[in-house]
Amino acid sequence: MKCENCTKKECSKKQKNDDTQSTSVDALSSSDGFEEKNEFPTLADAKILLSDCLACDSCMTSEEGARVFQQNQKELFHILNLNKKCDTSKHKVLAVSICPQSLPYFAAKFSLSVNDAAKRLCGFLKSLGVHYVFDTTIAADFSLLESQREFVQRYQRRNQEEHALPMFASACPGWIRYAERVLTNLVTSHICTAKSPQQIMGSLVKGYFARQQNLSPDKIFHVIVAPCYDKKLEALREDFYTALYNSQEVDCVLTSGEIVQIMEQKNVSMKDVNEVSVDTLFDDMKEGDVVRHDGKRSDGYLEHIFKYAAKELFGMEVKEITYKALKNKDFQEVTLEKDGETVLRFAAAYGFRNIQNMVLKMKKGKFLYHFVEVLACPGGCLNGKGQAQTEDGKPDKALLNQMEEVYAAIPVRLPETNVHVQKMYQDWLEGMDSKKVQETLHTTYSAVSQTASSLDIKW
Questions:
Q1: How far apart are CA 29 and CA 67, in angstroms?
Q2: How far is CA 231 from the centre of its chain?
């Protein structure tokens, strides 16, 4: 199967070549400054199968390719080594933010409760020399709140603006990359402008937290631990770069599996690590028990936006959502009925096959949905290719089932009930409708033409 935009004789997504990129990448690896002796383990260069990334069909420029390959464990160790040297001017405050969908992987893999896994992961990272370890759930709070407000606004002006509806979720970087590079403005104008939780966390760490600590953003090295490789690409986006400080909001993304590789190289098991409470952005306050949002395998954009829209637009309280599976389990719909009429029709489309079918219907004018939660990975974020994979690159179904059970058991917290978020809206963002909210929590998406320097990278 080839996508409608493909001009190749054979789809390169069918290849599975885990050789490292030649020439420029090899040169990068040999001159990255890690030949010095240090106490940290020697790790193999990051290797990513082509199938690991939805967005890799000729859409990577050579510069992006080199920068993605820099986002590996060596980059983390490079900062840790600099912090051990005498020249304090080069020292960085090292902050690591952990995605909620990564914690069930560590819990299931090491047979721990999710709370123990969070504390032991924090303990391990701090034993390496990391200064702060955060949970990105608070960033997802902001993203959900902004997304649901934007949907209601789009719905209310649907008759005046051609591209108001449908609205597509913006949290998945693989989907965003594909939409911008392949699907043109037919689709990108419908993507929610709220930043993903990863990039909002970047704004919180390099903005709010930096100010609280009296630090310049470039003095913080911010690492995200995430379930998939596409987030490495997201961190490189130009709209998430601050020229004034020569600083990205997220400096490096490591997958959950790459963290486990570090543990294995150091012969450390999570069960042998001391528990340390996860930090918060607020002075010396620590995180309590792990919480999540509605949603079986993701941050629950469909559930939260659906319930909010039902109440705001139609005055209806929705307690439970009933999914209806259509062609497959990764394409499901949810509807709201009022007075015998369907007033809201939402869908969840996971995986490349369902994304293609969705776009095809849209091009034919047969698209009935008001909102779609789009995720590149079949099964959602828990099934990200950076975790729960067997040695041959296939999903570890037994481990994934355990992860789903762990995730489902985590208590749900509504973003509206987070008092810290409400306080930050007022004290830091100058109100929910302020210009600063738009600058800090939103971005824009548009079609990007392919460049001559694109690489058909065989990861």
A1: 11
A2: 5
| Crossing angle for the helix pair 301-314 and 137-156, to the nearest 10 degrees | 40
Please compute Rg for the chain using Cα positions. Answer: 22
Tokens representing 117 are 């896994």
In three-state form (DSSP H/G/I as H, E/B as E, the rest C), the secondary structure along the chain is CCCCCCCCCCCHHHCCCCCCCCCHHHHHHHCCCCCCCCCCCCCCCCCCCHHHCCCCCCCEEHHHHHHHHHCCHHHHHHHHHHCCCCCHHHCCEEEEEECCCCHHHHHHHCCCCHHHHHHHHHHHHHHHCCCEEEECHHHHHHHHHHHHHHHHHHHHCCCCCCCCCCEECCCCHHHHHHHHHHHCHHHHCCECCECCHHHHHHHHHHHHHHHHCCCCHHHEEEEEEECCCHHHHHHCCHHHEEHHHCEECCCEEEEHHHHHHHHHHCCCCHHHCCCCCCECCCCCCECCCCCECCCCCCCCHHHHHHHHHHHHHHCCCCCCCCCEECCCCCEEEEEEEECCEEEEEEEEEECHHHHHHHHHHHHCCCCCCCEEEEECCCCCHHHCCCCCECCCCCECHHHHHHHHHHHHHCCECCHHHCHHHHHHHHHCCCCCCCHHHHHHHECCCCCCCCCCCEECCCC
Dist. CA 137–CA 421, nearest whole Å: 11
Phi and psi at 106, nearest 5°, equal -65, -40
Q: What is the pLDDT along the chain (459 residues), one digit of tens a residue?
A: 344 444 344 444 434 333 433 333 333 333 333 344 455 555 555 444 444 454 444 556 666 666 676 678 888 999 999 999 878 888 999 999 999 999 999 999 999 999 999 999 999 999 999 999 999 999 999 999 999 999 999 999 999 988 899 999 999 998 998 898 888 788 999 999 999 999 999 999 999 999 999 999 999 999 999 998 889 989 888 888 776 677 889 999 999 999 999 999 999 989 889 999 999 999 888 999 999 998 777 889 999 999 999 999 999 999 999 999 888 889 999 999 999 999 999 999 999 889 988 988 888 888 899 999 999 988 889 988 889 888 777 888 999 999 999 999 999 999 999 999 999 999 999 999 999 999 999 999 988 765 534 444 332
Side chain identity, residue 75: E
pTM: 0.86
Spatial separation of the C-alpha atoms in residues 190 and 449, rounded to whole Å:
18
Query: How would you classify the pairing of strands 371-375 and 132-135?
Result: unpaired
